[in-house]
Amino acid sequence: MAKLQVKRIYDTPTDKDGFRVLIDRLWPRGVSRERADIDLWLKDIAPSTQARTEFGHRPEKFAEFTARYRAELDHNAEAVATALQLLREHGTVTLLIAARDPECNHGIVLREYLAEAFERAGNGKIS
Q1: What single DSSP character describes residue 60?
Q2: What angle do CA 118, 121, 122 make, to 5 degrees?
Q3: What is the pTM of this model?
Q4: How far apart are CA 113 and CA 67, in angstroms?
């Protein structure tokens, strides 16, 4: 069973992270590339600048942002396919974000989206 988790880039990397993928369009402030300890920067899977700006990490706009980002992902087959391939290859993937809110962020939306796509493709469930 594959494991897909979301973690802040500012948190200390652990052995349980598996393959670490930064999913922000912009490099996180105050994090050196060495400290980030990422395996891949998949910025093409991040929400558009316009979607991110309109959301502004305001919880009251999260539902609207979620719908918009999911629509963007529907039209971003190449980046989604890359993320799904990483899950198949590595088993455990950690999506890294800079957002502060652990419940209202694009990583949560992407995790759910990828879990659904992974299962639809017949790869099993994601924990």
Answers
A1: G
A2: 95
A3: 0.95
A4: 11
- What's residue 116's pLDDT? 96
Identify the H or E element spanning 67: helix 62-74
Determine the Cα–Cα distance for residues 23 and 63; give it in Å rounded to an integer. Answer: 20
Beta-bridge partner residues of 41: 22
Residue type, 125: K
Instruction: Please provide residue 87's backbone torsions phi and psi, each rounded to the nearest 5 degrees.
Output: -65, -45
Mean pLDDT by 10 residues, the chain (127 residues): 94 95 96 92 96 93 97 97 96 96 94 96 87
What pLDDT, on the 0 to 100 scale, is given for residue 102? 86
Instruction: List, in order, residues 6 or more apart from 47 with CB less than 8 Å away.
Output: 25, 55, 65, 68, 69, 72, 106
Angle at Cα 31 formed by Cα 94 and Cα 126, nearest 5°?
Answer: 5
Whether the Cβ atoms of residue 24 and residue 97 lie closer than 8 Å to each other: yes
